[in-house]
Amino acid sequence: MSQSVRSGPLRAVGDAARPSGGSSYNSLAVGYEIEKKEMERSSEEAGSRRWEEEKKREQEELRVVKLALEKGSREMRDLEENERNRVEKETMVKDEVSTNRWARNKTDNSQDGYVKVMNPSELHSDSRMLEGTPVYIRDPHFSWVPATIESPEDDKKRVKVRVRLPSDWEECTVIPPGRSIENMDFDQIVKLTDYPNNELPVQNVFSALDTVGKNDMADLTHLHEAAILYNLKARHREGNPYTRVGDIMVALNPFQWIDGLYSEDKQLFYANNLIWQASATKTPRQVTNQAHDGPLSLATAATEKQALGYEYEKLGIHPHVYETSSLAYLGLAHDGTDQAILVTGESGAGKTETIKIVMNHLATVERSRPLWPESDRNSISEHGSEQVVNRVIHSNPLFESFGNAKTLRNDNSSRFGKFTQLMFDVESAADAARGGRRIPSCHLVGSRCITYLLEKSRVVKVSEGERTYHIFYQLMGSPDESKESIWKEGLVGTDITDFSYLSSSFGSIDGLASGENWPETVDSLAIFGIYGDIFLDLMRSLCVILQLGNITFDSDIFDGEERSNISSVEALQKLSVLLGVPEAVIETAMTKRFMVTRGEEFTISLKANEAKDGCDALAKEIYARVFDYLVKKINAYTKPPGTRTEYGTISLLDIFGFESFAVNRFEQLCINYANERLQQKYVIDNFQSVKKEYEDEGINVFDFSLIDNSEVIELLEGRLGLIAQLNEECVRPNGCDESFVYKLKVVNSDSSCLLQDKLHFPYEFAIRHYAAPIKYDARQFIERNLDKIPSDLLVCASKSKNPFICEQFQVLLTKLEESKNTPALKKRSEATKDLVTSKFKGQLTSLMTLIEKSRTRYIRCVKPNKGMVPRILDHALTVSQLESAGLVTAIVISRESFPNRLSYELVMERFKFLCYKYSDIKLGTGDIKIDSQILLSYLLAGITVNTHKGRVAPFACGKTKVYFRVGALERIETIRQEYYAERAIQLQTWMRVRQTRQMYARLKRGVTLFQCNIRRWMARRTFDKTLRSAISLQCFIRKVLASLELERRQREHAATLIQARWRVTEPRQQFKVAHAAIIRMQSFFRMVVCRKIYATKKKEREDETVIASRMTMIQQNFDDASTIQGTVFSVDEGLLEEVETMFEFLRKEIVTLRKKNTTLKKQLAESEADKRAIYSHASSVDHSYALSKIRVEQMAKSNTALLDDNNMRRKEASKLKNELKLQQQAHEEQLNQMRADFDIALAHREMELKNMQSNHHSTVALHKREIQMIRDEAERKQEENYNEINRLRDEIKRTQVTARYSRFVESFHYLFNHDSHQDYLAKLMDVLETTQASRRIGSSPVDDDILRQKDSEIARLNEEVAMLRMARGGRSSHGESEDVEGNRKEAVKSMVYSVKKNRQQRKAHVQQLQALASQLGETISYGHPSQMQNLVESLKDAIKMGEQSNSKMDREMVNMIDFSSMYFTPTATCAPESFDDLIAENQKLRRKLEKKNTCKKCGHKRSDKKEDRSHASTIEDDSSLKRSSV
Description:
Blueprint: H1 2-17, H2 22-35, H3 38-99, H4 120-123, E1 134-139, E2 143-152, E3 158-164, H5 169-172, E4 185-191, H6 225-237, E5 242-245, E6 248-252, H7 264-276, H8 284-293, H9 298-308, H10 310-315, H11 321-335, E7 339-344, H12 351-364, H13 374-383, H14 385-403, E8 404-405, E9 413-414, E10 417-426, H15 429-434, E11 442-452, H16 470-476, H17 480-491, H18 500-503, H19 518-527, H20 533-549, E12 553-558, E13 561-566, H21 569-579, H22 583-591, E14 592-597, E15 600-605, H23 608-638, E16 648-654, H24 666-697, H25 710-717, H26 722-731, H27 737-747, E17 754-755, E18 764-768, E19 773-777, H28 781-786, H29 791-798, H30 803-820, H31 824-833, H32 836-852, E20 855-862, H33 875-884, H34 887-896, E21 900-903, H35 904-911, H36 928-939, E22 945-947, E23 950-952, E24 955-957, E25 961-964, H37 968-1127, H38 1133-1313, H39 1315-1337, H40 1344-1367, H41 1378-1422, H42 1425-1461, H43 1472-1492, H44 1505-1525
Parallel strand pairs: 6-20, 7-16, 7-20
Antiparallel strand pairs: 1-2, 2-3, 3-4, 5-6, 8-9, 10-11, 10-16, 12-13, 14-15, 17-18, 18-19, 21-25, 22-23, 24-25
């Protein structure tokens, strides 16, 4: 409270005391400085520092408080919303209960013990299948996919769902090859009959904050296989590998090491909450059980608390293997009960790592005891526990080195089963009480290990992509010093390619099988006394195994007999030196067999393959002896000290999970047999123990065969079971695998678990296991069951100089000699004891005996995907493992059993006060059982549990107790806790209000006084501090700003000068270069042009000079000639012509020269233009050259970078190619596996299809016969009705013929005397024809002869009517009254209307029968018996209604005919005797016809030949069915 006051009012006062202006700051500062003193300043500075620290601390605390308040407000909003939803739900439940009032008498309570609560979920089984409900549907690739119901169909047996995958589906789900998620958004019609109880599995909708799934499957609202799958997927995606399923811990392999998951803090957390503080924690479940079952142990209480789930959530305890180990330690320490933890799973699921984690925790849990006293430390040192713990922990690396190998599924797969018993010295309860310890101490004092089914065949042969045991690779990767000390000649300078048994293996595995692990293995062996010569002998034995693999054999023919010899001479020499046996002895032992038969001794030469098999058998036996020796050494060094034999034990079982491959052999049979025994143990633990109690209390127990596998156990280990048949075949001379399979199928033919298929090969058989049906290949069953090594090789190995091999094989040779000396009568029984199955059966029996004496806990390891990729789940693989692990069986048990029980007295004592919530509840009947039923029916209204029987009530009432199903008691306890929580909150609210008011009054007085004294000092201190800070800050800021401004200006000025100088220098240099180049180019160009001009002008000048000289000469000649002519003689005419010619030539030459001159001027102008263009081009070339140079430099740099990038990408491409090749190989292997699985599934589907087809054919034949019988019955009834109508009609005629005969004749004549009456008769004939046609096509068939007879009569009547019309055609009708004519017309109209109505009714009836027939045909093709039965009943009803309507129509027709005859006047008489004779003759013909068409065997009446043939085939089918049934 003081903190809030400081941060509130005082701060406000300080803020208010601050002046606002800068001038007031200075004036106040002067006044304060005068009054201050040095002592006050120092004290104030110290106080200010303390105050600042307190203020910072207060601000931090205030921030934390604000965050907590915000979080609390969010939680309160969530709680309010949840409470609002709960209240609304309870209100709805109240309304439903009030409308459907619970009422049940006392006599009804003793029927089956179940209380039937009327609620909508039980009244309507499909009420959950509503629109918008999130569900799961089956998918062939993803097992289960989420969907949403769009709309239910009309028949309520199908629903339309919308499949839409989440956005993160591809990130956390393995997509099968060839499958894309792009088309996974579609609508689908789903048949509810394909799902249990005709309901789709409903999704569990989590809150927005709950994104990691539920810690315990018991917390899931809807518990089924799909819910478990998606809950595990959600947790695996978030990095939570562990989940509870009841008392089972499911562990998904995360394929990565999660930080902090296995830290020491985590171990301490689980130990403190589940062990050391367990005695102080009691749950409501514990109290209720103590009330009627006596005191409950702490370990059992913790297990019960684990089953509840929500208690763990409140404590913050998440699922972990440390939880299982802690509960096991608690059960051993407090209750003194031995514990057992069974760890199962397939290869790669993480069993080995889980065992190591649990073992390390159990070995060190005692150290986590709080306030560990020194006396305990001394006692631990006295017990030598530290050394024992060290040995137990170091045994794991040895088992991994000698017993683990790489497989296709796992890099570190255990190839043997291991049962480890950790032995603890448990302190008595009295000693613990004297020492002040609530939990007695348990000190680990030793351990014992038992191994099963070592895979010896892996030593000599491994599949592609797998490796042999790690120890061989560690040996090959050891240092040269170690190799030289072990076997210098064969190991130094070699690698795995030099040994045949290792050459097919891949490279090293980091951290598992490499030279780096060699020192750890050597140190671990030294801890168990294997060092020095013993270590060398052991390693040399491994070298012998490797060298045996290099021995090769050839075959040759000698005297017509094939013989073998050793072709690898060098390998034989090395083996001889290593083994210490001469080469000849080794070769003789491997290539020949020494036989003794009837006292005769002879030697047989072996073939090459037989010799190689013997060599491999020797190698396998040596490794088996090495492994057994190692186990004995570990047990000897970890056994408890002293002679004491009784210790508390916690056992750990690491064994193979259920296996199913494409080809299953002898090893898979043994593994699945062990899993069947473990599954039987689990079923007995969880249900068989309470079965008798349910029966005594009168509670109906569900069908135990749903989870019981005793029939499979009987088939495997019964007196005439599989093991007995196999052992008998092994000891029988010339026994073979096919004979074993034949005897197994014949002797156990009545077993439903032995699946027999005609398509099986003679060496194949199948067994229906609890997880799935498995088909086994029995080839080499006898050989592997015998597991014998030839005596010659035993003798050879016993002569070895290696002490280890010699000693081990001497023991085997001694046993062999003893067996030879056994009497003949005991030899057969003794022989079966040494077989593998007999030994394994005995080991399993002893193992189950040990487990039955212990409290068993289960850890199911699951491998989420085959690629070992973190946080990705393979749905199909995970679902198959869930089935194999028995988790589906656990769900069945949890649904069918009652984990909680209370007496009637305790129910009323604990929950009676909750009846206040229901106003209409009435208790006090006087019978506590009825009161308890009424109370629980209201508290659990609206809740049902889904079982194999459907949805049932969540509780059952026995004779003395009430039994609750999963979640029912937890719900009632939750209601009870909420009631107490509400009352506690009210009390707390009242007390807190009172305390807060008192505290507030006290604090208010103190705060007021404190504020008065400190406000002035605070204001002075704040102002002074602010003033100093402001001045200092201003000075500093101004200084910094000025410095920054100065520095900026200096940089700008310097940069300006540099830029100016640089900008001048560079262009100037460029200009000079360009200017000089241009001047040179201009000079050259001008020189060229001037030279051309000069040459031209020079030539012109020379030409002009020549012309001028010639002109001068001519002129002179002319002048001379003129002078001479004038004085002496006249000019010659020829000379004048020549002159004229010359002048003309000169004129032309001048013109030509002028044109050339003009042309030259033009060329000169063009040259000037070209000069200017060249000058500009030269300048641009210079600039381009400079730019090109820069670009070349840049491109050179880019080219270098690109070359480096190209090289890097080439390396990456080669690496990716290699990875792609590996992935392609893996994909091809997966594809082959999938093809094999698909072939097996296809074979199963074909078998099922054939069975379905045979069932369909038999069903179709049966329904055909039923339909035929129904049709025959309908025809018979129709014929009877028709005969009855004829009989009645004949009687009517006989009764009326005498009285009306004369009137009928007169009417008949009158009828043919009038045209209207003729028309009426024609219409009547048309009606008769129409009626006859409708009878022919109707549902009631008439005999063809009768139809033809009636047709002939109608035709005859038509002819007579036509003749009468022709004879009476011209006559007209006179003398008839208008009233009679009107009555006749009305009769005709009524007859026409009746005929039309009858036609419509018959047509509708025919259409209805056709529709029913088509539906019946479709139903027969689909094979739905219930729908076929319904359609047959509908067809019977329709036929019956048709018969009634036909009879009614016939009666109406007769009445109309009789009624119409009243309007006709008789004119003549006729003898009635002729009609009687006609009627008698007609009846006689009818009786003959019926007798002719009636079947003599069954009385069936036939109507045509086709029906006759169908009836005959039906009779033949019936007779064949009778013969087959007999």
